[in-house]
Amino acid sequence: MRTKVAMTFRALFALAAAAAVAVGATACSGSNPGSAEAAAAATMFHDDVRSGDVEAACGLLAPGTVEELEEGEPGSCATKLREVDLRATSTVLQSKAYGSDAQVVLDEDTVFLVQSGQNWKITAAGCTSRGERPYDCLIDGS
Question: Which of 2, 68, 76, 121 could pair with 141 as two cysteines, CB 3.0-4.6 Å apart?
């Protein structure tokens, strides 16, 4: 009887230890909620621009970014977006969400986003790192 109880206790302890490791691994990999959705929005924006669907691309921009892009000419987002020389991208290299903000590093661009309700909206795109200085962005509504 004692052996059976000891074996059951050891089995429960091993199961609890395995569960703790699994929870820890899940917490580490899932510690950046929203990053996949932000990456999807950044990729969709670039796909829309590349395919010429600039109206859809404008819909992915944050309101302040649209205002900045339009430069006081309401309704001109699509026209202005056609004039921006964004480099074609195809691969997400890294995506990080920090609360309601996110940064998506693509092979040819860095995109900054803000969460608006359930969606991610682009606040800056066409961004190039300048080391310790702020990014230089072709589209910037911040």
Answer: 68
